[in-house]
């Protein structure tokens, strides 16, 4: 499951940083995948980090604001699609 | 030690402040250096360089430089590249710092630990400052400083920069580190870490964090609660709009009394000089050229300061990142980055700070797109022109029972600016740089109450930058314009206005045929030339043209215009002003920020084309209008 598929209130743990949707689709990133991976890592998107989706944008529920460990971040779903996650049981049940 | 005292680095060590964004680094810089600050640019780049002096307890004169905030030495934006290059000693013309002071938000250590580990590889003397330590204590975060210091291998001090606490300790540590400055300090082998190395560094940081920092007993719940409202898709957007509305109300209504005061002051000064000096060239130069010229620019200081007051306040409070979150989709639809919101907002005061603040955007394409459209937003220099034309031609009456027609036209001009900026950005992204969008990935910092002293310092800085600009570029332009419109003098006894015989008059007449299709008279053409110095100057020139021209019979300028221009011409003039590249300083800044002549040329060409097209359309349509 990817971070980009989640909705407000979902929580869980990050399991990996992989290629994003955009990498395979025709929408290209301005930066190569390896660079996106490093930027995500530098901002704390690292395997084992806990997160919760706090808010979604008005249009197309994009971008999303999340709590990542003890900090808060905002990112577009396009970038979030590079983040693989595992949902908590309760979060998954609520969906 | 005694032998080392001779070394300049030991008596005056160069100290660089490094840290994540939002760690209170600038507050620490301000507290350490006080008023002894110098603001310039880093050599060869346009990133602001703030430097100052601090006296250490041992009597060293530490030269402190504030580096742009970053998460890593792998630079992503021009600002971050400066931090990397200075720290690595790669920036030509900027000496490598002897001592690094890494500043951390004590309540948010996770990401900074990795930066500390990266900086440590450089082998330079370094100290870690745990800033905002009072907030960490209030939240009950327990930090084992001894253990953290050992694990990281750097000394640690705590500080509360905004309360001026812990400064002595920081400077003592600078003293201690200055003893250790060695010739081998510069030997390092930094290279960009790979993804795996960043992961490993994270694991190490995580391990250290678990060992030495206990999570807060009373975590900050305010940020979460405020975000519940401020980031809410509907409520948050409405609040953002309300804040923007308040800002513009403030810029236009609070500033008026001050602006009137400045205006009256300069008028008085001018009249004083006019009485003191005999009429002639010197009087004309001082009164019409210098005093009137500087006055017409200084009058905008209150508006610029009020706008920056809001921007600095919102930035310090932590709201700007939220605004970028809320606006990202709208900006994204036009092909802009969420962060472009801040530069575009600043451009309402003046395109120059707006263009300069586009540096917060990492990606070159996104940054250039923002720079190219920023001058389309209605800057405060257009206001005098808009106000003059509107008061002369638009009747003051209510429409739809509540709206003032004049206010409505003003709003329409603003809307035209915003919409055209978004539309042009969209076209640029379609034509020049298709597809590829820069990632939007930003930290939402915890909310903090802005520190009044810091806000005041930021405002003083902006005022100084503006005054310096007014004192140099604009002043010389005004003198040039005065020269152009005074020389050559008309032959004695010549009929018609004096300016008609001057160089400005000749130029105006020369370009008039080009502007006739859009309904401009030669006086309007003349006003456009000096308007290149600063848009608002056009108002002064119209005044000069019509009073030097002897066509103002006691009435106000607006009155004179209403008698001279047709409504269609006036509307075309307004349309021209929405788009026209009427500001030489903006073009100069674009040249500097993009480091090429190509972009200012493109900017000039497309804005000129839009201005001509819009004025043409408006003139033709308005001429068709009956009555």
From TrEMBL, chain A:
Q: What is the originating organism of this protein? A: Tistlia consotensis USBA 355
InterPro entries linked: Fe-transptr_FeoA-like, FeoA, FeoA_core_dom, Transcriptional_repressor_C
Tell me where on the tree of life, at the top rank, the source sits. Answer: Bacteria
Domain named Ferrous iron transporter FeoA-like: residues: 1-87
Q: Lineage of this protein's species?
A: Bacteria, Pseudomonadati, Pseudomonadota, Alphaproteobacteria, Rhodospirillales
Task: Answer whether the UniProt record assigns the keyword Repressor to this protein.
Answer: no
Recorded GO molecular functions are:
transition metal ion binding
Chain coiled-coil ranges: none
Q: Under what name is this protein listed?
A: Ferrous iron transport protein A
UniProt keyword RNA-binding present: no
What Pfam families does this protein's entry cite? FeoA (PF04023)
Assigned keywords, A-Z: Iron
- SMART domains xrefs: FeoA (SM00899)
Record's signal peptide: none
UniProtKB/TrEMBL annotation, chain B:
Segments passing through the bilayer: 230-252, 290-314, 368-394, 406-428, 466-484, 504-525, 537-561, 567-590, 597-619
Q: Which domain of life is it from?
A: Bacteria
Subcellular localization(s) per the UniProt record: Cell inner membrane
Q: How does it sit in the membrane?
A: Multi-pass membrane protein
The family database entries (InterPro entries) matched by this protein are listed as: Fe2_transport_prot_B_C, FeoB_GTPase, G_FEOB_dom, Gate_dom, GTP-bd, P-loop_NTPase
Domain FeoB-type G spans what residues? 12-180
User: How is this protein annotated for GO cellular component?
Assistant: plasma membrane
Q: Which Pfam families match?
A: FeoB_C, FeoB_N, Gate
Keyword field: Cell inner membrane, Cell membrane, GTP-binding, Ion transport, Iron, Iron transport, Membrane, Nucleotide-binding, Transmembrane, Transmembrane helix, Transport
UniProt GO molecular function = ferrous iron transmembrane transporter activity; GTP binding
PANTHER family under this entry?
FE(2+) TRANSPORTER FEOB, FERROUS IRON TRANSPORT PROTEIN B
Protein name (record):
Fe(2+) transporter FeoB
Name its species.
Tistlia consotensis USBA 355
């Amino acid at each position: 499951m990817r971070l980009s598929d989640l909705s407000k209130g979902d929580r869980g743990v990050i399991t990996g940083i992989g290629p994003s949707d955009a990498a395979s689709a025709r929408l290209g990133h301005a930066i190569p995948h390896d660079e996106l991976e490093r930027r995500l890592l530098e901002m704390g998107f690292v395997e084992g980090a806990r997160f919760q989706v706090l808010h979604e944008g008005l249009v197309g529920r994009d971008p999303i604001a999340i709590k990542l460990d003890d900090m808060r971040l905002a990112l577009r779903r396009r970038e979030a699609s590079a983040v693989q996650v595992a949902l908590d049981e309760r979060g998954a049940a609520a969906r | 030690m005694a032998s080392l005292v001779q070394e300049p680095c030991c008596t005056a060590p160069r100290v660089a402040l490094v840290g994540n964004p939002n760690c209170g680094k600038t507050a620490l810089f301000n507290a350490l250096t006080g008023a002894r600050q110098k603001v310039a640019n880093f050599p060869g780049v346009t990133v602001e360089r703030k430097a100052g002096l601090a006296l250490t307890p041992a009597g060293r004169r530490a030269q402190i430089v504030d580096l742009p905030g970053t998460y890593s030495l792998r630079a992503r934006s021009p600002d971050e590249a400066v931090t990397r290059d200075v720290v690595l000693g790669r920036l030509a013309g900027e000496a490598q710092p002897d001592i690094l002071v890494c500043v951390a938000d004590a309540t948010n250590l996770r990401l900074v630990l990795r930066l500390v580990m990266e900086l440590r590889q450089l082998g330079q003397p370094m100290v870690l400052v745990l800033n905002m330590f009072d907030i960490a204590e209030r939240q009950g975060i327990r930090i084992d400083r001894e253990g953290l210091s050992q694990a990281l291998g750097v000394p640690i001090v705590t500080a509360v920069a905004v309360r001026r606490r812990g400064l002595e300790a920081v400077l003592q540590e600078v003293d201690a580190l200055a003893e250790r400055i060695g010739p081998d300090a510069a030997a390092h082998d930094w290279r960009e870490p790979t993804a795996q190395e960043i992961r490993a560094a994270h694991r190490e940081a995580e391990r250290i964090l678990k060992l030495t920092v206990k999570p807060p007993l009373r975590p900050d719940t305010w940020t979460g609660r405020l975000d519940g409202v401020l980031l809410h898709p509907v409520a948050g957007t409405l609040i953002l709009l309300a804040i923007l509305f308040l800002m513009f109300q403030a810029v236009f209504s609070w500033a008026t009394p001050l602006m009137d005061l400045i205006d009256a002051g300069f008028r008085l000064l001018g009249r004083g000089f006019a009485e003191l000096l005999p009429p002639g060239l010197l009087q004309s130069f001082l009164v019409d050229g210098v005093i009137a010229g500087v006055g017409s620019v200084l009058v905008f200081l209150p508006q610029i300061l009020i706008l920056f007051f809001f921007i600095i306040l919102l930035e310090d409070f932590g709201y700007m990142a939220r605004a970028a979150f809320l606006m990202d989709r709208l900006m994204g639809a036009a092909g802009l980055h969420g962060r472009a919101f801040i530069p575009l907002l600043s451009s309402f005061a003046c395109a120059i700070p707006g263009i300069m603040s586009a540096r917060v955007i990492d990606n070159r394409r996104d940054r250039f797109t923002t720079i190219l459209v920023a001058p389309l937003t209605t800057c405060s220099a257009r206001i005098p022109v808009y106000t003059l034309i509107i008061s002369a031609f638009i009747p003051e009456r209510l429409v739809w029972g509540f709206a003032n027609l004049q206010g409505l036209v003003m709003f329409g001009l603003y809307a035209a600016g915003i919409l055209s900026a978004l539309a042009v950005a969209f076209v640029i992204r379609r034509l020049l740089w298709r597809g590829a969008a820069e990632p939007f990935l930003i930290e939402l910092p915890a909310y903090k109450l802005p520190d009044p002293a810091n806000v005041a310092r930021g405002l003083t800085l902006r005022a100084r930058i503006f005054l310096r600009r007014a004192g140099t570029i604009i002043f010389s332009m005004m003198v040039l314009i005065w020269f152009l419109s005074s020389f050559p003098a008309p032959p004695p006894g010549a009929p018609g206005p004096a300016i008609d015989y001057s160089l400005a008059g000749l130029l105006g007449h020369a370009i008039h045929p080009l502007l006739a299709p859009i309904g401009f008279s030669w006086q309007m053409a003349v006003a456009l030339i000096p308007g290149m110095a600063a848009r608002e100057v056009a108002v002064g020139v119209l005044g000069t043209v019509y009073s030097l021209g002897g066509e103002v019979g006691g009435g106000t300028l607006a009155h004179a215009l209403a008698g001279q221009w047709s409504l269609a011409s006036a509307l075309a003039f307004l349309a021209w002003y929405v788009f026209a590249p009427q500001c030489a300083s903006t073009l100069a800044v674009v040249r500097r920020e993009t480091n090429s002549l190509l972009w200012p040329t493109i900017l000039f060409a497309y804005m000129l084309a839009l201005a001509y097209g819009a004025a043409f359309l408006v003139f033709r349509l308005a001429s068709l209008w009956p009555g």
